[in-house]
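Hey, can you fold this one?
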Amino acid sequence: MRLGTVIATLAIASGVATAAVAAEVAPGDVAFTDDGVAMSLTGTAGDPDEGAKVFKNKKLGNCLACHANTAMEKELFHGNVGPVLDGVAGRYSTEQLRAIVTNSKQMFTQDTVMPGFYSLEVGKDVTKDLVGKTILAAQQVEDVVAYLGTLKE
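Sure. Predicted structure:
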């Protein structure tokens, strides 16, 4: 009986995982509109705590390399290439933030230095390890967007 319970639990967990993967939007299938990207890339809400980790992680988002952020003032380096992100949740909607993080070139200009984090068109001079890949996974984008949503005036 115990083995049957374990197998049933695994089957249910497997089905849930399959459903979550099936809901993920491929980088080339992200639907951009003038209002941003309306649909979640994963169907799963972003986690702002995980998004903060991605935001400051030098091997992932590394957003602090270009954007100052008072909420992370204890971190060592804040760049000044991009705008300060304090209050960004009041300047942009969730849909716009998702579009900017997914592929800023769709929201701004092709000349922006901000890479497309969930795009196969990452930017100029792409390192060999990113050719044909995204910088962030779809859920990491959702997490960063959730974190940015906490940055209010």
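The CA atoms of residues 24 and 42 lie 4 Å apart. Let me know if you want another pass with a different chain boundary.
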